[in-house]
Write a structure and sequence with these properties.
Blueprint: E1 3-6, E2 11-14, E3 26-27, E4 33-34, E5 50-54, E6 56-58, E7 61-68, E8 71-78, E9 84-87, E10 91-92, E11 96-97, E12 103-104, E13 110-113, E14 117-130, E15 133-143, E16 147-148, E17 156-158, E18 179-183, E19 188-192, E20 203-206
Parallel strand pairs: 8-17, 9-15
Antiparallel strand pairs: 1-20, 2-18, 3-4, 5-19, 6-7, 7-8, 7-14, 9-17, 10-11, 12-14, 13-14, 14-15, 14-16, 18-19
C-alpha cells in the first residue's frame, strides 16, 4: 500500500486493490477513446488491462471526462479526496448537467467539506464509464447545496482508495484498480489493474506515514 513516483515524464501512484478496464485506440471525435463496453465481472486479475483518458487543465488542476448513466460529466482529478462527487445544484457545459440519474444508495445525507466547496451530499448509485469502459454500478455523491470557497465547480474524482470503517464507499474502493499514472507531458491519465512501475524503474517508494502514528 505504498506509492512510487517516477521522476521523469510521468507520475505513478500504486494503490491496494485490483482493476477496471482496457484501452482502445479509436476516437468518436469527443477526444475520448471509444472501445466496446465490458462488464466489470469480465476482468481477470492475471491479465493486464488499462484505460486511458485525456487530461484537461482546469482551475489549477487537471480534469477528465466520464459518463454517468450515459450522460457526460467532467471532474477534477483529486488525489486528496476519496469520492466521486458531482454538482447537483447547477448545469453547465463545462461540468455537465445532473438530472437525477442513479438510484438511492440507501445512505444518509452527509455534510462534506473540501478546499474549494462544502455542503450537503446525497448518496446515489449509478452506472459509471471511464474512457468508454464500464466500471459498473458505483456509489457516488451529489451536492444538494454548495458553499463555494473560491473554487470553480463542485465536481470531484477522488483518487484516495482506502477509507476507515463507517466512511462512504470510495470511488476506487468499488473497483479493482491497482495503479494509475499522470502523464503531464502528454496530458494523459491512465488506470490499470496491475502495477505500472517495474522494479527496474527509476522511482522512489513512498510509505503511508499514518503507520507511524
Amino acid at each position: 500500500r505504498g506509492q512510487r513516483l517516477a521522476g521523469r515524464r510521468s507520475m505513478f501512484g500504486l494503490l491496494s486493490g485490483m482493476l477496471i478496464s482496457g484501452l482502445g485506440g479509436r476516437s468518436d471525435g469527443s477526444g475520448l477513446p471509444t472501445v466496446d463496453r465490458l462488464n466489470g465481472d469480465s476482468f481477470k486479475k492475471d491479465v493486464q488491462q488499462m484505460v486511458e483518458l485525456p487530461m484537461y487543465p482546469c482551475q489549477g488542476s487537471f480534469c477528465v471526462e466520464y459518463q454517468l448513466e450515459g450522460r457526460s460529466f467532467r471532474g477534477v482529478l483529486d488525489t486528496g479526496s476519496p469520492f466521486l462527487i458531482i454538482d447537483g445544484t447547477a448545469c453547465s457545459e463545462r461540468w455537465g448537467c445532473y438530472g437525477g440519474q442513479g438510484s438511492n444508495a440507501g445512505l444518509p445525507v452527509t455534510y462534506e467539506r473540501y478546499a474549494s466547496q462544502e455542503g450537503n451530499v446525497e448518496w446515489k448509485r449509478g452506472h459509471v464509464d471511464f474512457g468508454g469502459r464500464s466500471l459498473g454500478d458505483l456509489v457516488f455523491g451529489v451536492f444538494q447545496e454548495v458553499e463555494g470557497k473560491g473554487g470553480d465547480g463542485a465536481a470531484l474524482i477522488g483518487l484516495v482508495k482506502d477509507a476507515q470503517r463507517g466512511i462512504r464507499p470510495t470511488l476506487l474502493q468499488q473497483t479493482n484498480i491497482r495503479s494509475m499514472t499522470f502523464d503531464f507531458l502528454h496530458h494523459r491519465f491512465r488506470l490499470s489493474n496491475t502495477p505500472m512501475v517495474s522494479r527496474k524503474e527509476d522511482a522512489i517508494k513512498v510509505f503511508d506515514i499514518r503507520r507511524l502514528g
